[in-house]
């Protein structure tokens, strides 16, 4: 932002006593018109004249906010915030508007075209109203010596567009109020509008390059160029329908998680006071189909955060891991799904040499081969990320970069994870997502069938603890399969599945007893009624 003192807008005119009197009179009349909410009736042209006349007796200052900072290709956050802040008043008061696409496919984000202006009223401490004016302008883009335009890669057509800017006019006597109170406040309000309007994103780091075809040195050089030039993340619009309302789980447990998220979201001051990075780790563990990924979506929707879905096997080195971290934004959730399968990271901390995990050499020495599969082929790739690198990513010096960030790890095998990975500070909240219990079933029945009670609930309550049925399976049984399926039919299908699962379990137990295997030797009976 640059502040300049504007000379009287009527420079050169003979500012005699009569003219000054008229100006003072006009200012008084104008302010009264504003108070009576008649400004819009009088019209925006009169508004501009009032400002010019008033400048005779009290000179104007201006603050200019450019779209691009320092002539570079980086868009100014302040410009975007002011634009967002002014969108409502522009839509209301301005005759010529510029429209851009918004989050909602049916809506448009409106802003003033060049030459338009809107006024804004600030409530001063002495209960008087102070009027300021925002005007929109633009200038042609700067040219390079060769006649080309600045910018490259990603700039494209954008480099040839006019550079827009907003200029705020206000009276000299309101300097303190505008600079110290008004401008910070509109930035905050603009940010809030942007959060509301913004399309949330789902990012992934899965590379589209076939690295195995590329020589190591070339690959390394290319990866540096890519990470310097553009984002290491690929993004799509995040549109997951799951919310906490439709996530079935024990209501008390759900409340506890929502409260925890609220405390985190509003915890900026608390984190600052205790000198803690504003981040929080969640570990979601439990068998497949218990809703871990679904919970991440519900969290993202609840908080309004972007989601960075990190595929560890696509990260080549600890250094790349750190670069990915640096390229994430605030108000985001970084998820590493099935962390136990992502890489052979379990129990390797001691084997990592000096273990600082901070350079590629270190990583190379301690490379762990990709292992683990969930039913079939192993995980491919040539990642050299070490456990140490991951530990530093989650709670090392660099993890304090940025703020308001959740890191969520999901796993089916919490017992396989290194204790250092899940210690408090890395994973602050551990949530066990388990087999469907009766409370979870009741919330699923409400969500799927809109029933709070039913004669078949008793059978479900009796059978559910006897077998291990995950919410994904219960949800499938409760989903109508044809237009004639009512609540009774869906519940009957679930009860049948439970009875069948119980019969299978009893048969397996009998078989084990016959074979001399005792129940204590068996960990769980997982029932997959759809197999
Ligand atoms: N608690 C739940 N409430 C509502 N739907 C659920 C719940 N749990 C699972 N589901 C449904 O079951 C399906 C599978 O859930 P999800 O993918 O979240 O399981 P997961 O625990 O992440 O499994 P995996 O360990 O295999 O990744 C989804 O379609 C989801 O909508
Ligand atoms: Mg999952």
From TrEMBL:
<feature type="transmembrane region" description="Helical">
    <location>
        <begin position="12"/>
        <end position="30"/>
    </location>
</feature>
<dbReference type="InterPro" id="IPR025753">
    <property type="entry name" value="AAA_N_dom"/>
</dbReference>
<dbReference type="GO" id="GO:0016887">
    <property type="term" value="F:ATP hydrolysis activity"/>
</dbReference>
<keyword id="KW-0067">ATP-binding</keyword>
<keyword id="KW-0547">Nucleotide-binding</keyword>
<keyword id="KW-0812">Transmembrane</keyword>
<dbReference type="Pfam" id="PF14363">
    <property type="entry name" value="AAA_assoc"/>
</dbReference>
<dbReference type="InterPro" id="IPR050747">
    <property type="entry name" value="Mitochondrial_chaperone_BCS1"/>
</dbReference>
<comment type="similarity">
    <text>Belongs to the AAA ATPase family. BCS1 subfamily.</text>
</comment>
<dbReference type="InterPro" id="IPR003593">
    <property type="entry name" value="AAA+_ATPase"/>
</dbReference>
<keyword id="KW-0472">Membrane</keyword>
<dbReference type="InterPro" id="IPR003959">
    <property type="entry name" value="ATPase_AAA_core"/>
</dbReference>
<dbReference type="InterPro" id="IPR003960">
    <property type="entry name" value="ATPase_AAA_CS"/>
</dbReference>
<protein>
    <recommendedName>
        <fullName>AAA+ ATPase domain-containing protein</fullName>
    </recommendedName>
</protein>
<dbReference type="Pfam" id="PF00004">
    <property type="entry name" value="AAA"/>
</dbReference>
<dbReference type="InterPro" id="IPR058017">
    <property type="entry name" value="At3g28540-like_C"/>
</dbReference>
<feature type="region of interest" description="Disordered">
    <location>
        <begin position="346"/>
        <end position="375"/>
    </location>
</feature>
<dbReference type="InterPro" id="IPR027417">
    <property type="entry name" value="P-loop_NTPase"/>
</dbReference>
<keyword id="KW-1133">Transmembrane helix</keyword>
<dbReference type="GO" id="GO:0006950">
    <property type="term" value="P:response to stress"/>
</dbReference>
<feature type="domain" description="AAA+ ATPase">
    <location>
        <begin position="278"/>
        <end position="437"/>
    </location>
</feature>
<dbReference type="Pfam" id="PF25568">
    <property type="entry name" value="AAA_lid_At3g28540"/>
</dbReference>
<dbReference type="GO" id="GO:0005524">
    <property type="term" value="F:ATP binding"/>
</dbReference>
<keyword id="KW-0460">Magnesium</keyword>
